[in-house]
Amino acid sequence: MDWNRRQVLVAAGGALPALAAKGGTYKIGITTNTRGGWEKDVWLSFRESREVGYRWVESFWSYFTAFDGKPAELKAKVEGMGVRFTTISNSGPMEMNFQDPAKHDKLVADHVKLAKFIRQLGCEHLKINLGGRRPTGTTQDDLEQMSRALDRLGKATHEEGVRLAIHAHMWSQFENRREIDFVLSHTDPKRVWFVLDTGHITMAGIDPVELTRTLGHRIVEFHLKDCKPENKGGAKARLDRPDMMTDPPFFPLGNGGVDFVSIKKELDRIGWKGAWTVELDSSPFRPPKQSAKMSYEYIRKELGIDPGAS
Predict the structure, then answer these.
(1) Can you give the residue range of the structural domain that contains 224?
(2) Run of H or E residues at 11
(3) What is the pLDDT of residues 276-303, one digit of tens each?
(4) Backbone phi, psi, residue 20, to 5°
(5) CA 166/CA 102 separation, integer angstroms
(6) Dihedral sign computed on CA atoms, order 268, 272, 275, 278
(7) What is the count of structural domains for the chain?
């Protein structure tokens, strides 16, 4: 076992506190910016998600800039629709170049501001992406700079009562096992946490069941999406960015590429509590509401959890 992998295992030990879930072990929600009908109308996505049965929603800051400085107004509007925020992710126009030390001051300021905002919405963690992947990929120096920025930011959000949770995402500066192992072994496990996206992890060639076992309580949220059955256990080749509306790599739960039953079994074994967030980047073959319903019913029937009761 290499040094980075060993350090990740140590950092993910059972002594770390688990995220407290409201209303049960799993806080089950949905990310609602699904291309194919929801991407341009966040309020429609919230209404239709609630009609399916979801009570928790996740979205991106770019949808809510009009509420800057007005968290109580946003909270009242969303709760009036019958849903609550799991988190609001970073996005443009925020600074997201974690690999550039010249931009770290602005980056920290932007994200601390968002952390303060979402805390007033009742959110317990800030899920973030680490910016688009450059043609040259992520270098060793990039990883070192990213780790420094994340440690600094994690300390700052911790002081605001919000956990910083980084999302490994295909086509970003943070996508593969080497990058995950380095960053998590070079940041404070009490300040920098992880969002495990079952679809992106699988298409990056990683087995999400194994990664769940490795990271344990350092995971505060799962993004739940399925893949093609032939990719189960990790895709054999890296996926170039596809056209999400003509050749989508991600599907509603139950397609067969992700072993959600084994993931849940491992989480139950360690007594994990946290957020399970259904996510589809696109729904080209049916309306997003119908895709959201398919995943809802899979969780209810196959995993034995009622998302509407979470």
Answers:
(1) 3-309
(2) helix 3-11
(3) 999 999 999 999 999 999 999 999 999 9
(4) -75, 125
(5) 21
(6) negative
(7) 1
Q: What is the CATH number of the domain that holds 19?
A: 3.20.20.150
CB–CB of 264/12 below 8 Å?
no
Task: Please provide the distance, in angstroms rounded to a whole number, between the alpha carbons at the two ends of the chain.
Answer: 38
Query: Could you say which DSSP state residue 35 is in?
Result: B
Joined tokens for residue 185: 């072994």
Mean pLDDT, the chain, as a whole number? 93
Which tens digits make up the pLDDT trace of 139-192? 999 999 999 999 999 999 999 999 999 999 999 999 999 999 999 999 999 999
Q: How far is CA 181 from CA 121, 154, 194, 212, in A?
A: 32, 17, 11, 13
Q: What whole-number distance in Å separates Cα of residue 207 and Cα of residue 209? A: 5
| C-beta of residue 272 within 8 angstroms of C-beta of residue 18 | yes
Amino acid present at 281: D
Whole-number Å distance between alpha carbons of 276 and 263:
11
Structure tokens at 92: 């443009």
Does the pTM of the predicted model rise above 0.90?
yes
In terms of Cα–Cα distance, which of 166, 174, 175, 248 is closest to 205?
A: 175
The sign of the torsion formed by the CA atoms of 31, 225, 112, 160 equals positive
Does position 16 have pLDDT exceeding 60, yes or no?
A: no
How does pLDDT run across 184-226, given as a tens digit for each residue?
999 999 999 999 999 999 999 999 999 999 999 999 999 999 9
